[in-house]
Design brief:
Strand order of the largest sheet: 4-3-5-2-6-7-1-8
Oligomer: single chain
Cofactor: Mn(2+); Mg(2+)
Structural class: alpha/beta
Catalytic activity: ATP + H2O = ADP + phosphate + H(+)
Number of helices: 20
Bound molecules: adenosine-5'-triphosphate, magnesium ion
Family: Belongs to the DExH box helicase family.
Subcellular location: Mitochondrion matrix, Mitochondrion nucleoid; Nucleus
Organism: Salix purpurea
Length: 573
Amino acid sequence: MAAFLLRHRKVSTLGVSGILKADKLEPCRLHVALRLGALAGACNLSREYSTSYDNRANKFDFLDLTCPHAWYPVARRKNRKIFLHVGPTNSGKTYQALKQLESSPSGVYCGPLRLLAWEVAKRLNKAKVPCDLITGQEREEVDGAKHKAVTVEMADVTSSYSCAVVDEIQMLGCTTRGFSFTRALLGISADELHLCGDPAAVPLIQEILKPTGDDVHVQYYERLSPLVPSQRSLGSFKNIQTGDCVVTFSRREIYKLKGQIERGGKHLCSVVYGSLPPETRTRQATMFNDASSEFDVLVASDAIGMGLNLNISRIIFSTMKKFDGVEMRDLTISEVKQIAGRAGRYGSDFPVGEVTCLHADDLPLLHSSLKSPSPILECAGLFPTFDLIFMYSRLHPKKGLYRIMEHFLENAKLSENYFIADCEEMLKVAAVVDVLPISLHDKYLFIISPVDMRNEISSQGLTQFAQNYAQKGIVRLKEIFTPGTLQVPKTESALKELESIHKVLDLYVWLSFRLEDSFPDRELAASQKAICGLLIEEFLERFGWQKQPKRRKLPSRVNSGFLLSKETRQCVK
Ligand SMILES: Nc1ncnc2c1ncn2[C@@H]1O[C@H](COP(=O)(O)OP(=O)(O)OP(=O)(O)O)[C@@H](O)[C@H]1O
Ligand SMILES: [Mg+2]
């Protein structure tokens, strides 16, 4: 069912680990020469400038990233009051920070997930505080809004606000996305900056903020409702009850468990996992939260682990191991706490949360993890701005972006509080776009786009978009996305493909916000995305992997207006 025509060479795999997802280029490329002076401060550079650009560039050490706080002159002009709201899950950290945001004349909320940004925009607008929603793929502007809810990659470090909130700040230690949290922490210009998260991040944040001169206040929170680790394992799915959430870490397991539970005949399961379209995840969560819906049990991955308020009575770990891309490993203390913390949310139908495992063997790890503090964070992620990469590239004009980045990343100088972001995915994209006749800026844009290069359809979509952009300067969706009949998936692989197609359409929308003239079919892409979401939901509501007694015929609305072309059908086979 792959609806994308694939006319490109196979994407090479490179031996660097990790992924990079950022959304925004720092404004700069037209003003590079003018900004060398500002960067001198940022890079600990010699101030003996000569007149020509290249001579000047030669004197700078663009590899010196030891003073990242100096990359953000707008924030450095302010004496920010920083409030660190730290404590366990479900302790009201985000709630208190949002109260401050709501009562401020202007502000921004930066969250780690689109779902959280949506939730905050909805909440503020409901409270009659007009609030824009800005994520990589959405711009919903509200008349008169002085507030914004954004995904952290979209945080604007050139505007000033009265109040800003960065949620789940402990993510600054994440190998792949951490640098966006560091950027928000150092770069947001606000009178008050509220940071919410795990106490494990406090010493590092205090250390990082020392050179900024900001005032830092730490406020500790206690859990608002009890979380009780059970002494007994679940044992069998016969013991599943309404309000239970079973946690596992692969799509295949999620559907297997959904099937097993539903075959018991007493419960229907909503599912939430990372590669479901965000809209679908929200609707699945809403259905589970709604006491009048038949879907009273949730089967989910760790995608539920951050900030979401779900009506969960008991978390059941079906496993305490997870494949992390390289190996199967035990869940970390922070992961266990974060996931377990979803049970018994304050204000939900279940005033006391319970947590257990499917298998008795896993109970000791569960209990010890819940008792231990999360390990203190040592370092925050960092990644060079486009400015630095661009100027560094001027010193090596014959090298492509891949080589420039590789060299940059290997040789960058960092202080002990930072690590350089893991960017395997970004380098894979650099290898693809380097052969195309496009500017460094455009290449950089493609490498920071939200493509999943481990997903074949998604990586092929990106390649096709980049090639068409390079050849024609305009990318019409219909040339790439073959009009066809998308169907309700009937198999695991069909579902996976539909999820991948959704990702490619999402990528088109992302590019359309940055290269508006060259990607003119945003509306079409958005409507196709919506259709993918509906078909996936239809599958989730009516089918499972396992044989079920009450099978219904395929619904007639599978004809979404798309006819798969011969080529595409061949492609699929
Ligand atoms: N003072 C309060 N009055 C009413 N509701 C509250 C209050 N504090 C928190 N809540 C509610 O309790 C729930 C948990 O709060 P919140 O999401 O702020 O916790 P958190 O500490 O940020 O959790 P997490 O670490 O999981 O993100 C939310 O539904 C929130 O609206
Ligand atoms: Mg929170």
